[in-house]
């Protein structure tokens, strides 16, 4: 049985949960918190980050590495495009989503959710304002041109779509949603991914764990 370490509300853990669901792979989840400084967990994940995945004798860290491993070992249902050019484009979107987009969107989540709930500190609202007003708009302008008007980035729902939307799900827990007036295509795309039949039950289960439902 595959064991996934990491809390469901991590944007990176959510990628892996969704890929496991798309590939219809059963797994056991251990709700490992990030920043736990847990010596036992560090044996599995040397940087202490989530997600980590164990599959028999194999232990892997990093959501991208894990998703590629699942794609290679279970290729029956693809989560990456199969042609080289689209696959490279999908990997770039996953990288962009996992770096700058996550840094900003999850930055809002970190300030408004993690700081008060986990670290018992006040959020830095000035920083949140800077992210929303200055840092995010140029990225959102780019994403507005990147996402399609209908369906998903490569036709059917795949990992690139999930990677891109995942950080915005965290931001929504911190009362931030993409402005539908300024970025209508991106906003509609985010809704389409969140309400996809694969994603919806995952988000419902996550909301229960988070105490939102
Ligand atoms: N590149 C990694 C990033 C993982 C990551 O940064 N996870 C966060 C939680 S969302 C974490 O564990 N942070 C704890 C830390 O940085 O010590 C991936 O794609 O899995």
Annotate the secondary structure layout:
Layout: E1 2-5, H1 11-22, E2 27-30, H2 39-44, E3 52-55, E4 58-61, H3 63-73, H4 84-117, H5 125-146, H6 159-173, H7 184-194, H8 199-210
Parallel strand pairs: 1-2
Antiparallel strand pairs: 1-3, 3-4
This protein binds glutathione.
What keyword list fits this structure?
58% helix, 8 helices, Glutathione S-transferase Yfyf (Class Pi), Chain A, domain 2, single chain, alpha+beta, Glutaredoxin, globular, 4-stranded mixed β-sheet, 2 domains, 4 strands, binds glutathione, 213 residues
Model description:
With 213 residues, the protein is of the alpha+beta class. The chain folds into two domains: 2-73, Glutaredoxin (3-Layer(aba) Sandwich); 84-210, Glutathione S-transferase Yfyf (Class Pi), Chain A, domain 2 (Up-down Bundle), CATH 1.20.1050.10. Helix content is 58%, strand content 8%. It has eight helices and four strands. The protein has helices at 11-22, 39-44, 63-73, 84-117, 125-146, 159-173, 184-194, 199-210, and strands at residues 2-5, 27-30, 52-55, 58-61. Strands 2-1-3-4 form a four-stranded mixed beta sheet, covered by helices on one side. The protein is globular, with a radius of gyration of 17 Å. The two termini are 29 Å apart. The model has no long low-confidence stretch (mean pLDDT 96).
